[in-house]
Write a structure and sequence with these properties.
Elements: E1 19-23, H1 34-42, E2 45-50, H2 57-62, E3 71-76, H3 89-110, E4 115-119, H4 129-136, E5 142-145, H5 150-158, E6 169-173, H6 178-187, E7 190-194, H7 200-209, E8 217-220, E9 228-231, E10 244-248, E11 263-268, H8 279-287, E12 290-294, H9 295-298, E13 308-312, H10 317-329, E14 333-338, H11 347-355, E15 365-368, H12 373-381, E16 382-383, E17 389-393, H13 401-413, E18 417-421, H14 431-440, E19 448-453, E20 461-466, E21 479-483, E22 489-491, E23 494-496
Parallel strand pairs: 1-4, 1-5, 2-3, 2-4, 6-7, 11-14, 11-15, 12-13, 12-14, 16-23, 17-18
Antiparallel strand pairs: 7-10, 8-9, 8-10, 18-21, 19-20, 19-21, 22-23
The protein binds S-adenosyl-L-homocysteine.
S-adenosyl-L-homocysteine binds next to helix 12, strand 19 and strand 21.
Biased composition (Low complexity): 1-14
EC number: 2.1.1.130
Protein name: Precorrin-2 C(20)-methyltransferase
């Protein structure tokens, strides 16, 4: 405990008082900690925030521990809505209020008085106390007494586990924009949305948009008088107070209600790693009951309790599609997993093709996009695909080489930059050499060519070579080739294609 003095060395200096941020818990006074009660009992000054009406929830929680000898400091917010005639606007008004409030507390501390600032819930968790802490804790001996948050209180009242095992719990202020809420809610396992009230309609739309309404719960005034819990879907939005939260509980502990009908969603997981997995795709992977996909791609998806995985080899796509659709027909929520984007040389078409046949007429199929390899690879060197470009697979397993050759020639003569997927494998080794010869008929030998292998993965390697030096031996299943147009520039490590042609 550092002892701070107000000033000077003369005998009569008063040691400064101590500052406490006191968490009071969510509302029920019996949920205050023993330490919070002790600190309040020993404090000279008890401070609390309130709106202009003067009623303080924090004070009412602590009321039974307040004595007439306590000096009470009301810190009354000048504004609660965001309209004010302060020259600095809402922010300016608040800044001035916090500075003035901190000065009042500092005066007590300088006079040697112990100051307890009351905070509903926990002081460091979205609380007003923090504004005092930031202004005073570096100058005065300070202690924060943690409190039970509304998050814990809400989970306790719902009687459902909030997060278990490796589940991620996301805490969101309801004041965020709707789309931001939607993305976060879609991607997370469990969630608590705080600060409802006026934000309620937005929050409920976001929960719905994220597909989480069936499992979403609502808790109003947890552990306070007038407490209420309900399914979020049933809440009348006119009646929602600020002291309420929306909760998406643990999916492991209480799985969301089974969907009424099975469905298939074809998901693109991006070229590698969670940085390139969209929030929507992440959420869909978590919500699926069954995962179907090529072993290599499925291995990238984290295991979740209760989910069935059906890995397969990379060969017969239509069989995999049929398998997924059959599961869905039996009522399961099925995710078919592709790398990159599922519509780019991947499973989406195969699933839709089979789904168009009679037995699957009633199975809903959705496609969720992903970052495709071409764009991920391009980003590593700059913007080689910054102007018009063509996307061509060099695999002649599903189309004859003559078609590929024709397309390469057509794209090359149109001066399109190219993204070449599936350039080669252990068994397909000559396609890249043939492609180089075709392209050289239309393009200069020094045209920049980007060879990108395992982009975003642990063995990533990206090089730029002149077209004339493109070597089939440098290419495998995990490589994508980007070929520049006549305009593509290459300096040092950067490759880009300008968006305009010279006049
Ligand atoms: N649906 C995927 C493409 C599947 S075809 C997508 O949108 O990216 C498989 C080909 O994609 C590979 O042969 C390779 O050319 C390319 N590819 C996929 N991931 C890659 C990565 N991380 N790095 C380089 N190329 C990749």
């Amino acid at each position: 405990m550092s002892e701070q003095q107000t000033a000077g060395t003369a005998g009569e200096t008063t040691p400064a008082g101590r500052l406490y941020g006191v968490g009071l818990g969510p509302g029920d006074p019996s949920l205050m900690t023993v330490r919070a009660v002790e600190v309040i009992r020993e404090a000279d000054v008890v401070a609390y925030h309130s709106a202009r009406h003067g009623r303080s929830i924090a004070r009412s929680i602590a009321a039974r521990h307040l004595r007439p000898e306590h000096i009470e400091e009301k810190l009354v917010y000048p504004v609660t809505t965001e309209t004010t005639d302060h020259p600095g606007g809402y922010r300016g008004a608040m800044e001035e209020f916090y500075a003035e409030a901190a000065a009042r507390l500092a005066a007590h501390l300088d006079a040697g008085r112990t100051v307890a600032v009351l905070a509903e819930g926990d002081p460091m968790f979205y609380g007003s106390y923090m504004h005092m802490h930031k202004r005073l804790a570096d100058r005065y001996d300070t202690e924060v007494i943690p409190g039970v948050t509304s998050v814990s209180a809400a989970a306790a009242r719902l009687g459902t586990p909030l997060a278990e095992g490796e589940e991620v719990l996301t805490i969101l202020p309801g004041t965020l924009p709707e789309e931001e809420l939607t993305a976060r809610l879609a991607a997370t396992d469990a969630a608590v949305v705080m600060k409802l009230g006026r934000t309620f309609p937005t929050v409920r739309r976001a929960v719905t948009e994220a597909g989480r309404l069936p499992e979403a719960r609502y808790v109003e005034r947890a552990t306070m008088d007038g407490e209420r819990t309900a399914p979020l879907a049933d809440v009348d939005e006119q009646t929602v107070p600020y002291f309420s939260v929306a909760v998406l509980p643990s999916r492991v502990a209480s799985p969301p209600p089974a969907p009424e009908h099975g469905s298939v969603v074809v998901i693109g997981t991006g070229p590698a790693g969670p940085l390139w997995l969209t929030p929507e795709a992440r959420g869909e992977l978590a919500a699926a009951q069954d995962l179907v996909g090529y072993t290599t791609y499925l291995d990238r998806v984290p295991h979740r309790p209760g989910q069935q995985r059906h890995p397969s080899d990379n060969k017969v796509e239509s069989e995999r599609a049929e398998f997924a659709l059959d599961l869905a027909r039996r009522g399961r929520r099925v995710a078919v997993v592709s790398s990159g984007d599922p519509g780019v040389f991947a499973m989406a078409t195969a699933v839709l093709e089979v789904a168009a046949t009679e037995p699957y007429a009633d199975v809903p199929v959705r496609v969720v996009p992903g970052v495709t390899a071409a764009n991920a690879a391009a980003s590593r060197v700059g913007a080689p695909l910054g102007h018009d470009y063509a996307v061509i697979s060099l695999s002649d397993r599903l189309k004859p080489w003559e078609v590929i050759a024709q397309r390469l020639a057509a794209a090359a003569s149109a001066d399109l930059a190219l993204a070449l997927y599936n350039p080669g494998s252990r068994s397909r080794t000559w396609q890249v050499g043939k492609a180089r010869e075709l392209l050289l008929e239309h393009r200069a030998p020094d045209t920049p060519v980007v060879l990108a292998r395992d982009v975003g993965g642990p063995t990533e390697r990206v090089r730029t070579v002149p077209l004339a030096d493109l070597n089939p031996a440098d290419v495998d299943m995990r490589t994508i080739i980007l070929v520049g147009s006549s305009q593509t520039q290459h300096t040092n490590n950067t490759v880009w294609t300008p968006r305009r042609y010279p006049d």
